[in-house]
Amino acid sequence: MKPVFRALLALLAGMMVAVAVIATVETASHQIWPIANVGVNARDPAAMAALIQSLPLGALVSVVLAWCAGAASGAWMGYRFAVAPQQASVGLGVAGVIWLATAANLAAIPHPTWMTLAGLLGVPLSGWAVVQWERRRMGSATRSSKAVETPPSQ
């Protein structure tokens, strides 16, 4: 398989994993902190702001954690599925797309300032941290396998 095609598939796989993780965490959050359907007009920013202000802190924190966990897991999947030298680009690309979706969500729905900052900083940092971790892990695995394959000097 051509590396570019594999990179595109890796990006798609990473996005699918990211969305699945975000949906799973947010679904679990709704089970813990149910939101009463009070007929809020989702197109009314003032009504949405009032709804978000009424939510418990745990519900809001879980949303930020969902975004970060989605970016991290998607970046991991993209990195692992891609081949060198595109691995880091694909992993960071997945995190970048999740960051764009997070920014769009934050622009469309009024959120507390701390949540905006946590989402806009936490999502790319989560993806970057996973890519760095995988680079180190894969690098140490390569170094250790080379050490095993190299015969000792006499």
Polypeptide structure, described:
The chain has helices at residues 3-32, 45-54, 57-81, 87-108, 113-149. Helix 1 (3-32) crosses helix 4 (87-108) and helix 3 packs parallel to helix 5. The model has no long low-confidence stretch (mean pLDDT 90). The protein has 154 residues and is an all-alpha fold. 81% of the residues lie in helices and 0% in strands. The protein has five helices and no strands. The protein has one domain (3-149). It is elongated. Keywords: Membrane, Signal, Transmembrane, Transmembrane helix. The chain crosses the membrane at residues 51-76, 88-108, 114-133. Residues 1-23 form the signal peptide.
Structural class: mainly alpha
What is the number of independent domains?
Answer: 1
SSE order, as H and E?
Answer: HHHHH
Mean pLDDT: 90
Strand content: under 5%
Instruction: For the record, give the distance between the C-alpha atoms at the N and C termini, rounded to a whole number.
Output: 42 Å
Number of strands: 0
Give the biggest sheet.
Answer: none
> How much helix, percentage-wise, in residues?
over 70%
Q: Which regions contain 5 or more consecutive residues with pLDDT less than 50? A: none
The total count of helices amounts to: 5
General form: elongated
Instruction: Work out the radius of gyration.
Output: 20 Å
Transmembrane segments: 51-76, 88-108, 114-133
Signal peptide: 1-23
Keywords: Membrane, Signal, Transmembrane, Transmembrane helix
